[in-house]
Amino acid sequence: MLKAQPPLSGYRVLDLTRVRTGPTAVKQLGDWGADVIKIERPGGDDMSGPRHGSDFQNLHRNKRSMTLDLKRPEARALFRRMVPRADVVVENYRPAVKHRLGVDYESLRALNPRLVYASISGFGQEGPYADRPGVDQIAQGLGGLMSVTGPDGATAPLRVGIPIADLCAGLYCALGILTALLERERSGEGQWVRTSLLQAQVAMMDLQAMRWLMDAEVPAPVGNGHPTGSPTNAYATRDGFVNVAASGGELFERFCRAIERPDLLEDPDYATEEAAHRNRHALDAIVEARTRTETTAYWVEALNAAGVPCGPIHDMRGVFEDPQVCHLGTTLRVGHPVLGPIDLVGPAFDLSRSPMRPPSPAPESGADTDAVLAELGLDESEVAALRASGAI
Prior knowledge:
By secondary structure, the chain is an alpha/beta fold. 40% of the residues lie in helices and 14% in strands. It has a six-stranded parallel β-sheet with strand order 3-2-1-4-5-6, sandwiched between helices. The chain has a three-stranded antiparallel β-sheet with strand order 7-8-9, with helices on one face. The longest helix has 24 residues, at 164-187.
């Protein structure tokens, strides 16, 4: 029986991305077997932190590195020779930059009509903000996330603790690339995939966005509570905190019995979902008075046994020591030639039949330049000329 290959084996990706959102997209493709060639300026310009730092290693695993200074005409000509052999190009320049460098979709499509070309920008390829520099926190504010984040009733906005606009734009970009590759199987033609930090952030607002779009309601921050259901919150225990989600119907009934407060089911202030949420502050105080009497571990066991969603609130050490996290295999062990064995964050899904590629560490700058040039058929004199010019 033939050994199963990673599902994206045979696809080649030219990676022009930097920082976080573009590398997040490309990482999804490399993890599942695509041949990713990271194009970087000689001397490095990625800005993902130190090359041997944890962030860079996680973002740029499973790639080959080629140095290429696209500001030089020889380098641009060499890149254009690579395009017909590629399936995907991914970039996250500001919209005008790719045209200045001659690596825009229209220019590259003329070389390879099957090319899937993916762009991630701060705010979109056109429009009044298209030329603005885009970073995660700006998108969190502009996309509404900071307006609903913070303590219950807060008036000051608060960003979330991860670069979620960056990460989600990267994930949506990867989804768009895979969608375009699937469509290419029917049409035989590539196309331009476009997303932005702003689009991704607005899409991720989901429930909160719909409260405005359909109900004309402007959501406000509710801290750890749920915007539409109670009791759902983080409650203090004897030795910490516990997350509980017990709003509504039979779930609320099981919860009240588990915390030995069945009387709440007959109290008109809490007996219906609407009443419970309307009186959520008083209900939270009642619940917390009870949860404080036992440990977090006690409530996690007791409430889950009663069928009530409940869990601890881990720091990062607790996350990776949690037995379920360990069981799911959420880390990848990689051998690095300088750092030794290191653990990286694993993928968020697995496939029943197709394996991931064996993970490789982030490459040293230009480690694969000669190999890529050899694949293009360049001889020693041509490579020497490119080095002498500074193009590679």
